[in-house]
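Field reference: sequence -> structure
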Amino acid sequence: MLLVAIASGALAFRLWRLDERVMHGDEANQAVRTGILMETGRYEYDLKDNHGPTLYYLSLPFAWLTAGKNFADTNEITFRLVPVLFGAGLVLLLWLVRDGLGRWPMIVSALLTAISPAMTFYSRYYIQEMLLVFFTFGTIAAGWRYARNPSMGWALLAGAFAGLTYATKETWVLSFGAAAVALAVSPAVRAGLFAVNRRHLLAALGVAAAVSVIFYSAFFTHWRGVLDSVLCYGNYLGWAGGEKSRHIHPWPYYLQILLWFHEGRGPVWNEALIVALAAVAMAVAWRRRRNGDAASAWLWFLAVYTLALTVIYSIIRHKSPWLMLTFLHGMILLAGVGAVALIEAARPSWAKWLVGALIAAAAWQLGGQACRANGRFCADPRNPCVYAHTSADLLNLVKRVNQIAAVHPAHHDMVIEVCANPYDTWPLPWYFRKFHNVGYWTQAGDVPAGLRPAIIITSMDQEPAVAAKLGADWQSEFYGVRPMVLLNIHIQKNLWDKFIASRANPKGP
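Structure field:
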């Protein structure tokens, strides 16, 4: 019951003001792709610049319930509900490893999962990461249950989770690689592997393959997607090495976020409590590694897995803060063990209460950070979770376009020309989902000569070429998309005058 109560609290916290943060470009990209699926029923995996299909398909029930098959009627909550549920669901999954962690370590891990700033922030982010963490942990947890009680049911569940992990994001291979390292250095766990029933193993692999094929083939309508789900790793090796990435950071990037992050006049951010308690648990795991009991073997596996995954992600040059969630979750699992170990090690009894109070105070501070991260600083670059995020000023651009549409005879059917590189374009396609005649071009020379747009939006690199074609009958404004990225909006002068007149006389004659 306590675990359910914590999960309920985690869910409520993640639902709080869910629609207030401006959409990140990546969120908008995922939402638009889901919109195409909900309206056309078609999905094709893109091996060059996208991730697995589970996010899109699992979003469909929420989209259908709230908007039918009309993408224009969806909103931020429609899509963000999906990672919210999986983020809160991580708490409930802890029940599967209760006898590995122990009852009170499980409860502490549940609380830390519920209030971790990064876990809460990205549980409200419409990207694949929270699903990846959930399915990865589900695979490991079901594997642990199988080790405790070998049966076909647990084998099939582990296989299903593994297939969903594969079908969610290509970085699954890093988590499974770290798990393989942990198994290789854990004699007790490795011995258990050799005792796995071959029929169970084949069944698990079969289910994993079937689940991944179902999703990547778009439910047997696009078989090329299955092949592309394998070929994609050639492309992602380029991202990992930094050749194709603009998000290159040094190896301690994630640790800096977790241990001490401070920008300008913003607050200090850290999840040092989790890292410190995880380090304690790793020391406990090292001391118990040769005990031979199942719980010690599980703890040793978890410690090596988390450490290996942390090292792997730190070595990879391409970095963004949400990528750390898989190993941060491993740290949270360990932190529950570390917290209880510290309390049990304290002598005399008053010292136990003191240690417990200090941990509780640090956890309270962690929860306060989570409130700030998802509240006042939800789109502020001084928040370490806010990365290449859309500026709230873009909403002013969207507001202006809607104001012009209100005075245009065609309203949402008016023609809008967007001439910008793709990086500068997102999340405009999301915010323009109600407009029916929006054209996107990356080069001004590609725009059809006969096009007569009511509004032209350009990125700064295309502005000179567009401006050269414009006459004097345009009104121009600048708006911020994200830090150091601006868009210029040109509005037909006659529409601008009608808009100004409507403001001066809002009730009409």
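Note: The two ends are 64 Å apart (CA to CA).
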